[in-house]
Amino acid sequence: MSNPIPVNSARVTVHMYLNNVIRRSIFIAVCTLPSVSTAAEESVAPADIIFDSPHTFPAGAGISKLTFRAVGEDGSMLTTWSGTVSLSGLAIRTGNAAANSELRPFAGEVTFKSGLLQVTPALLGVRQIRVSPHGISVTANKQHWHFPVHVRPSWLRLLPPILAIGLVVLFRDVTVSLVLAIFGGCLLFFPLTESYLAVPVFCETMVRTIADYDHASVILFTLLLGAMIGLMNDSGGTRTAIESMSGLASTRRRGMFLTWLMGFLVFFDDYANSMLIGGAMRPLSDKLRFSRAKLAFLIDSTSAPVAGLAISTWTAFEIDQVVAGFEAAGVEANAADFFWSTIPFRIYPILMICVVAVVACSGRDFGPMLRTEQNQPSVQSSSQTSKTHGSIWLAVIPVFSLVIITVTGFRQGIDAYRLLLIASFVSSTLAIVLSLSFSQMSLDDCIRSWISGISSMIPAVVILVLAWGVSAVCDTGQLNTAGYIIAMIGNSVRPEFLPAIAFLAAGAIATAIGSSFTTMALLLPILIPLTCDLMGSTNAVILNDPVFGSTIGAVLAGAIFGDHCSPISDTTVLSSAAAGCEHLLHVTTQLPYALLTAITSVLLGYLPIGFGIPWWICLPVAIAVCIGGILFLGKESDS
User: Fold this and answer.
1) What is the mean pLDDT of residues 483-498?
2) What b-and-e string marks burial along 28-50, b requiring 16 or more CB atoms within 10 Å of the CB?
3) What's the CATH number where 79 sits?
4) What 3-state class would DSSP assign to 365?
5) Which of 90, 137, 531, 622 supports an S-S bond with 106, CB 3.0-4.6 Å?
6) 445, 121 in Cβ contact below 8 A?
C-alpha cells in the first residue's frame, strides 16, 4: 500500500495548476485583445465626413491641398479608421498648369489614413487641381456627401501682385506690403466669416518657402557672402584694395565704368554678380561720390543681362525649358543649338548693357536718378569700410577663391545653388584665416565681424523670403496668376505680333511674381507649341524662322525686363542690399531706364522683326536710339 499524498502537498499542486491556467488565460487575452479591438474599430464606419477647406476660391485657381476628416457619432475624428472613398468634382492638369488644353475631369478613389484625407497634386500625380463650381462629392460605404463651394471672380488671381506693388508705392515699406500681399492671397480661399483660417495657411506658405532647398541655399549664400564682406572691410583689405583701384577710377565716370566692366568678370551668376560687386564697389562709390542708388542700378542692370547671355547658372535651366517646349510641340531638334541661336533676339538685355555703359561713361541721368544724384550730401561716408589699412590680399584672395570655385564647379556641372553655397562658405572661412594669419584681427574680432556681416544681410533676407512668398501664392498650384495673364492674351493673334506679345507677357508676369526663372518656366512650354500652331508647322524648319526665334528670345528677354521692374524680384532685393541702397529708391530710380529700353526693344526690335526686317538691322538701330535717348534726356548732375 502506497503512502497517501500529504494534504498540504496536494493543495500546493492544485494552487500551482490554477496559477498556470490563469497566467495562460491572461496572456492569450492580452495577445488577442489588440486584434479584436482593431477589428472592431475598423468595422466602425464614419458617421460623417467633413470638408475643411477650401470652400472659396477664385475661378481658375489651382488648389494646393483639399482636406477631409472622417468623424464618429460624437463628432470627433476617427483616427483609427482608414478606408477608400470615391471622390468627384475635381479637374486636373497633367501638363503645365498655365495652359488651357489639358484640363480634364477627375473621378476616382482616394484613401483616408487615420481618419484624414489630404488631396494634393502630388497625391494624384498631376500638376494642378481645380474644384468644380458645382462642388465636391464623396462616396463611402454607400453613403454620399456633397460639399458646395463658392467661386469668386477670376481677376482676383491678380490680387497678390497688385497688392504688393500698389502697397509698396503707397506705404513705401516693402516688408509690410509683401506680408499683406501674401495674406491677401491666402484670404481668397476662405469666406469672410472664416478669414481667421488664412493665418495658418500664411504660416504654412512661409515655412514651405524657407524649407525649399534652393531658397535655403540662396539665404545661406547671401548671409555667408555678407560675412565675407564684413571681414574684408574690418580687416582693412577692402580699403586698401579700393585705394589701389583709385588710380584706375579717379573720377565718377571712371568709377561707374569700372563697376560696369566688373559685371562682365562675374558673368557666371547674377546673385554672385550683385552681391560681390556691390560689396566691393560700395566704398569706392562713396569715395567718388556717385550715389548708392546709381551703384545698385549699375550692378542690377548688368548682372541678369550678362548672366542671361553668357554661359552661367541660367544656361542649363533655360535650355531645359526649351526642351520642355519642344516636347510639347512635337519638334525634334537640338534644343541647345536653338537656344544659342536666339541670342541676337534677346534685345532687351543687349540694349540694357549698352544703356548702362552710356550712363556710366557720359555721367548723364534723368528722372528720379538725376534728382538722387543731385541731392547727395556734400560728404558721403561709408559705414561699411574700416578706417584701418591691411594687406590687399585680405580682399583679393577671398574674392578670387569665390570666383575660382564657382567657375570651376560650374564647368564640372555641379548644382548651381549648392556650388554658390560651398563657394561662399569657403571664401568667408578663408577671410577669417587670412585675418588671423596677417595678424590684422584677433579671433574674437573675426567672430564679431563675421556675425556683423551676416546681420547686415538680415533685412535683405527678410524681403527675399517675403518675395518668394508672393511667388508661392501666385504659383500654378494655387492662384495660377500667370495662367490668368496668358489666358487674357488668347491664341487668336497674328504670328507677326508674337515676338512683341511674348516680350510684354513675360515682362508683365515677371513684374507680377518677381521671378524671371518662374516666368521662363511658365511661358516657354506654352508659347513654343502656340507659336508652332499659329505658324502652321511643327517641323524643324520652323527653327530657322526669325519669328519663331525672336518669340523665344523675347520670352527670355522679357523675363529680365520684368525682373528689373518688380519691387519683389530677388535680384532687385539683393542688388539694393549689396549696394547699401534703400530698396524702393533703387526700384524707382532704375524703372525709367528699364522702360526706355523695353519700349525701344518692342518698337524697333520685336515688331519690325515680326514683319520680316532682319535682326542685324533692327539691333544696331535700337542700340543707337537708346544711346541717343540717354544723351538727349539725361543731364549731368551738379556733383
Assistant:
1) 75
2) eeeeeeeeeeeeeeeeeebeebe
3) 2.60.40
4) strand
5) 90
6) no
Whether residue 148 sits in one domain with residue 235: no
199 domain-assigned: no
Helix (H, G, I), strand (E, B) or coil at 459: helix
Residue 536, burial from CB neighbour count under 10 angstroms (0-12, 13-18, 19+): exposed
State the DSSP H helix or E strand holding residue 132, giving kind and residue range, or none if neither: none
Note whether 281 and 418 are same-domain residues.
Answer: yes
Q: Is residue 240 part of a domain?
A: yes
- 163: buried, middle or exposed (CB in 10 Å: 19+, 13-18, 0-12)? buried
pLDDT bucket at 303, cuts 50 / 70 / 90: very high
Closest CA to 566 of 168, 191, 194: 168
Does residue 586 share a domain with residue 440? yes
| Separation between Cα atoms, residue 160 and residue 180, nearest integer Å | 8
Q: What's the domain range around 547? A: 213-309+317-363+388-457+467-634
Same domain, 432 and 517: yes
Write out the H or E segment, with its range, that includes residue 403: helix 393-411
Closest to 65 measured CA to CA, from 141, 118, 3: 118
Residue 620 or 93, more confident: 620
List phi, psi (to 5°) of 54: -95, 140
The pLDDT value recorded for residue 639 is 52
The residue among 99, 129, 152 that closes a domain is 152
- Looking at residue 638, its pLDDT comes to 58
Kindly state the DSSP code that residue 113 receives in the 8-state scheme: B
The structural domain count of the chain equals 2
Instruction: Say how far residue 82 (Cα) sits from the centre of its chain.
Output: 37
Question: 459: cis peptide before it, omega within 30°?
Answer: no
Q: Give the residue from 633, 562, 584, 587 showing the smallest Cα distance to 348.
A: 562
Whether 587 and 491 share a structural domain: yes
CA dihedral of 77, 79, 81, 84, whole degrees rounded to 10: 80
- Pairing state between β 116-119 and 635-636: unpaired
From the number of C-beta atoms within 10 Å of its C-beta (0-12, 13-18, 19+), residue 76 rates as: exposed
Residues 322 and 252 placed together within one structural domain of the fold? yes
Length of the chain in terms of residues written: 639
Secondary structure class of 143 (helix, strand, coil): strand
Q: Write down which residue in 152, 177, 202 finishes a domain.
A: 152
User: Does any domain span residue 304?
Assistant: yes
pLDDT at 22 over 80: no
- Region 387-398: mean pLDDT is 79
| CB-CB contact of 635 with 364 (8 Å) | yes
In a domain, 33, yes or no: no
Write down the pLDDT at residue 36: 41
Beta bridge partners of 112: 83
Query: Are 135 and 232 members of one domain?
Result: no
- Read out DSSP for 35-79? HHHHHHHHT---SEEEEEE-SEEETT---S-EEEEEE-TTS-B-T
Beta carbons of 87 and 136 less than 8 angstroms apart: yes
- Residue from 263, 272, 330, 275 nearest 302 by CA: 263
